Each structure stands twice: as C-alpha cells, then as structure tokens.
C-alpha cells in the first residue's frame, strides 16, 4: 500500500533537505520550513546550499513548497523536526533551536498529527522538553490528540555508499499508535530497515551511543598515535595489520582532530545529562579531551619538522590545506583546522589557508599561491585534490616540511623528494 502523507520538514540542512527530497520522491506531499530566509531563497532558485550528491540530483526537479512560515503545519499529517543541536562554548547542550521549533510547531498543532524529532538529543529530551511544549502551547494531549516519535538521523554527508534512503533507522515513541505511524512513514521512504525501540529515550540513546562509540575509538587510536610517535612505530601499518583479524577489531584511524556537527558534540549531550542524574562518564570525557587536543599535537609536529630543518615556527610560512572537517565536503562545523590555524598564528607563523570546497575561509585563491614559498604544509583535510599533489610540486614551491594530519599522503615518496614528513603517529 502506498501511503501519501502531507509532510512538513522543519530545518532544511544536511539532514532535513535530503529527507524532504526523499519523502517527495516516495510520493508524499512535502513542505520545507526554515527560519533562514536566504536558504529558502537559494532553494527556490534551485541552488544547493551545501555539497550533497542527492540534493544536487533531485533539487532541480523538486516541487517541494518552501517557506519560512509555520502555518503550513496546520494542514499536514506528519511534522519532522531536523534543527541543529549544538553545544555552547562550555560544552553544555544547547537546545534553544529544538525548543524554538517545537514551540512554533505547537502553535499550529492539530488533532491526529504526528511529530517526529530527528535532531540528535540526549535521552529524555523528547519526553521532558518537546512533549511538554507541544502539550502546553497547543492545549492538546500527547498520545491521544497527537503523537510524538523520535527517529534519530544517521546520515553521513559525502558517503558514497550510505545515504538518507538506505541507512537503517530506529524509531521510538511513548505509545504504540504514534510508534506505528512513524514506522509506517519510514518504511514508505526507506530501502533500509526500521527498528522499533522500546521508548523515546531508548531511541535517543541509540544515536548518542553510536557517536560516542566512534569518539572513543578515535580517541584510542589518537592516543596510540602519540605514543607510537615516541616508539617509532607506524600506527597506520599497525591498524592495517590488526584489521586483518576477521572479528572483534574495527579499524579507526588517528588524525589532526575530530570535527563535524555530530561526533565532537553528541557525547557532551550524554555526559551532561548523566551528570545531572549523578553519574560521571569518565571514559567519554577523557575521549573528548584527547580528541580536542589533537590540533595541539599537530602543531607540535610542525614545530618538530621545522626544527629538523633548523627553522623556528616564529616567522615561518605555514600553509594549511583544508578547512572542512572531512574530505570532499564544504561543512566546516567544529573543524579542527580552525584550532590548528589559531595555534600556528599564536606561535608567530604566517598562515596561508586553502580549501577548494570552502572559498569563504581561504585566504589564497589557488594551490599555487598557497604553496609558493611555504616552509611547511599541514594537510588538515584529505580532499581528493590534495591527495594527488606530487612531491615535486612541493619541492618546486620550496616546501621543507609536510605534516600529514590525515595520514593520507605517500610518506616514502615525500621523504624521497627530500621533504621532512611527519604524520599523526607515523
Ligand atoms: N550533519 C550531519 O551529518 C548529521 C547527521 C546525523 C544527524 N544530525 C543531526 O541532525 C540535526 C540537524 O543537523 P544538520 O546538520 O542538518 O543542521 P544544519 O545546520 O545543516 O541545518 C539545520 C537547518 O535548520 C534551520 N533552523 C534552525 N532553527 C530553526 C527553527 N527554529 N525552525 C526552522 N528551521 C530552523 C537552519 O536555518 C538550518 O537550515 C542535528 O541535531 C544534528 O546533530 C546531523
């Protein structure tokens, strides 16, 4: 049976926009709401606000209605909230946007509607923050007048294999009618599976656990990278060796820092929530500290490399290649490149910044001007353009030191060309 619902997606970012386009392709009538007028204007002109293959493919033919007004909520059946959930500078969860979106939805809420929160939140946010807002502002009763579910998104922007359509999902609610409605909706749009969780907070916990798992594993290999640098062991070779074990080992790789809107953010939601309930997540907090310190380690590697060629960092020219938090995308949220740049400048280096995906953060316009006369280069993002730069290009430009913050470059070839190579643990 093909179900066709009127769906409103609130927040048209990396999560909401691909979802809205997918729901439309699967036969739902979709309206996208975003408080950012400039984003709505861009989308109305069929311009993609960020790099995403599915958005590029499907936005041009899309007939999704686009608006900054929440009045469309009134005539819809399903409302999906996909607004950001960042942390404040002190790492405390910032739920302002979830509260704002829930309030605006609640002002329009009608009987029979299903609200799904897709934003990543810690356990209990759906039930103790979103639900009370929906009930108090609308005067309606959750579970009988309207329904609430949580279905955390797992999208991994830039991933060539896994996308909004084929990633399996989990869904939770606090009663069975809303749960089944939400499951039916996701089953109508996904090729991946949909798993029912026992409660809203179980579904919320799934997402923070997944990203905390990744943060902890990355912290472990980052710690190994620092230790193996002293021991003279190549961490990448060791991980690749360990990964030949067909069970009980999962390869994670070290790097110059962890970025993005999820991994360096979501663990804090769990840490802070558990703290309020009297539990300290020591392991998770340590992982956050180790990963947050990787830009320092990267800059130490620059200092060591320059020292090897009898140069001081103070007064040298250092080029940072890449400011987005991962390869081949333009998302710079929580990118370690910014901390690396700040630390290099604080040490007196003249810093050149180049990212072909992020012109707005670059201070040079092309690779040639980025490299010419640079004493050291830090590869902070392994964009495909950067991985194919020949060692000769560096030597011709006068580069003496290469700090490979992503362990993505051919170490031996770079060393053969007479350049000092320093990786993260190799
Ligand atoms: N980016 C990812 O890779 C990813 C993956 C999985 C889950 N998530 C989670 O999904 C959520 C959304 O993340 P994102 O990356 O799509 O964010 P984003 O910043 O790309 O997009 C969010 C959009 O919401 C809009 N917005 C903000 N407040 C609003 C409001 N009150 N009403 C309507 N629109 C509003 C913003 O203008 C923006 O366009 C977060 O909780 C995030 O943790 C993100």
Written account of the structure:
The protein folds into 2 domains: 6-198, Rossmann fold; 199-426, Rossmann fold (3-Layer(aba) Sandwich), CATH 3.40.50. The model has no long low-confidence stretch (mean pLDDT 97). It has 16 helices and 13 strands. 41% of the residues lie in helices and 13% in strands. An 8-stranded mixed beta sheet has the order 3-2-1-4-5-6-7-8, sandwiched between helices. The chain is elongated and about 75 Å long. The longest helix has 32 residues, at 200-231. The chain has 426 residues and is of the alpha/beta class. The protein has helices at 16-25, 37-44, 53-58, 96-106, 125-138, 176-189, 200-231, 235-242, 266-276, 282-292, 294-308, 336-346, 367-371, 384-387, 391-397, 411-416; strands at residues 6-10, 29-33, 65-67, 78-81, 114-117, 147-150, 169-173, 194-196, 317-321, 350-354, 376-379, 401-404, 420-423. Residues 10-16, 33-36, 39, 82-85, 97, 100-101, 119-120, 153-155, 157, 261-262 line the site of nicotinamide-adenine-dinucleotide (NAD).
Draw up the topology in text.
Layout: E1 6-10, H1 16-25, E2 29-33, H2 37-44, H3 53-58, E3 65-67, E4 78-81, H4 96-106, E5 114-117, H5 125-138, E6 147-150, E7 169-173, H6 176-189, E8 194-196, H7 200-231, H8 235-242, H9 266-276, H10 282-292, H11 294-308, E9 317-321, H12 336-346, E10 350-354, H13 367-371, E11 376-379, H14 384-387, H15 391-397, E12 401-404, H16 411-416, E13 420-423
Parallel strand pairs: 1-2, 1-4, 2-3, 4-5, 5-6, 7-8, 9-10, 9-11, 11-12, 12-13
Antiparallel strand pairs: 6-7
Bound molecules: nicotinamide-adenine-dinucleotide.
């Amino acid at each position: 049976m093909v179900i066709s619902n009127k769906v409103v997606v609130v927040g048209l970012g990396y999560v909401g926009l691909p979802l809205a386009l997918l729901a439309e392709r699967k036969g739902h009538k979709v309206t996208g709401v975003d408080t950012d007028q400039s984003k709505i204007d861009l989308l109305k002109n069929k311009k993609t606000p960020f790099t995403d293959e599915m958005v590029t493919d499907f936005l041009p033919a899309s007939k999704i209605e686009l608006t900054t007004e929440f009045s469309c909520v009134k005539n819809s059946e399903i409302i999906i909230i996909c607004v950001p959930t960042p942390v404040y500078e002190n790492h405390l969860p910032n739920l302002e946007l979830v509260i704002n979106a829930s309030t605006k939805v609640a002002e329009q809420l009608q009987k029979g509607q299903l609200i799904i929160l897709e934003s990543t939140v810690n356990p209990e946010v759906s039930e103790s923050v979103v639900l009370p807002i929906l009930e108090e502002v609308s005067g309606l009763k959750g579970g009988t007048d309207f329904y609430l579910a949580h279905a955390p998104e797992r999208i991994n922007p830039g991933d060539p294999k896994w996308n909004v359509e084929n990633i399996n999902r989990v869904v939770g609610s606090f009663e069975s009618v809303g749960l089944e409605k939400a499951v039916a909706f996701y089953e109508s749009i996904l090729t991946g599976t949909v798993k029912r969780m026992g409660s809203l907070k179980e579904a919320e916990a799934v997402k923070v656990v997944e990203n905390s798992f990744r943060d902890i594993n990355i912290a472990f290999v980052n710690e190994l990278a620092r230790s193996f640098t002293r021991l003279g062991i190549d961490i990448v070779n060791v991980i690749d060796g360990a990964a030949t074990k067909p069970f009980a080992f999962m390869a994670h790789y070290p790097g110059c820092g962890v970025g993005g809107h999820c991994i360096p953010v979501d663990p804090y939601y769990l840490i802070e929530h558990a703290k309020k309930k009297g539990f300290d997540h020591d392991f998770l907090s340590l992982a956050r500290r180790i990963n947050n310190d990787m830009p320092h380690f990267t800059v130490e590697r620059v200092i060591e490399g320059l020292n090897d060629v009898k140069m001081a960092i103070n007064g040298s020219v250092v080029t940072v290649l890449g400011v987005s938090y991962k390869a081949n995308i333009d998302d710079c949220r929580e990118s370690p490149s910014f901390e690396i740049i700040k630390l290099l400048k604080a040490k007196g280096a003249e810093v050149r910044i180049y990212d072909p995906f992020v012109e707005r953060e670059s201070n040079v316009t092309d690779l040639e001007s980025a490299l010419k006369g640079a004493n050291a280069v830090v590869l902070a993002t392994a964009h495909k353009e950067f991985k194919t730069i020949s060692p000769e290009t560096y030597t011709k430009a006068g580069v003496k030191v290469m700090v490979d913050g992503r362990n993505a470059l051919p170490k031996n070839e770079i060393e053969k060309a007479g350049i000092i190579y320093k990786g993260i643990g190799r």
